[in-house]
What does this fold into?
Amino acid sequence: DADVTQTPRNRITKTGKRIMLECSQTKGHDRMYWYRQDPGLGLRLIYYSFDVKDINKGEISDGYSVSRQAQAKFSLSLESAIPNQTALYFCATSDAAGTRNTGELFFGEGSRLTVL
Amino acid sequence: QKEVEQDPGPLSVPEGAIVSLNCTYSNSAFQYFMWYRQYSRKGPELLMYTYSSGNKEDGRFTAQVDKSSKYISLFIRDSQPSDSATYLCAIYRAGNTGKLIFGQGTTLQVKP
It folds into this structure.
């Protein structure tokens, strides 16, 4: 089983619909992140959480919200989806402690969202 | 100005070629420099990371950092079709608010 699991892997929806992307991890990491990937723009940070009670906005948080239900679960919501939110979304985790705190991220396999 | 700029692709090279991928960054406070590799339909995975200026080798891959010029490079020797992927540079500043910042990514195709 993957260490970082995202569901759904693919989703097609219509403008105005509410969408939730879910992420769960078995790595035991405290830090979790949601990124969006678009061609030519790389990975852009939407939200991040350093522990269950900590939620922070990233560079492109408008139109998104998150919930950290447990150390292992971090979900991303689009309250009213619009076509320019069509993208590939990645959840990631990192370990703040340890001997090699380089900020290395461990990614899920992505959720492809299409908003019509 | 973006904090990290990556040379645009895509790159297409014949098998066996030497590949050079490059990024520049703007903030001298960044401490860690990474290269992630992303295969099609997969999440990025860490390929190499470096902390100081200079070269770091791992098999056919060499990561190079020049802090004075704020320039990082990844070299791939004897490129193989299995190296075909998107390569993303990333930089990091440790600390409680440290976050990884990614370049735009360069898609590489190695043709047999």
Chain A is about 0% helix and 55% strand. Chain A has a mean pLDDT of 91.
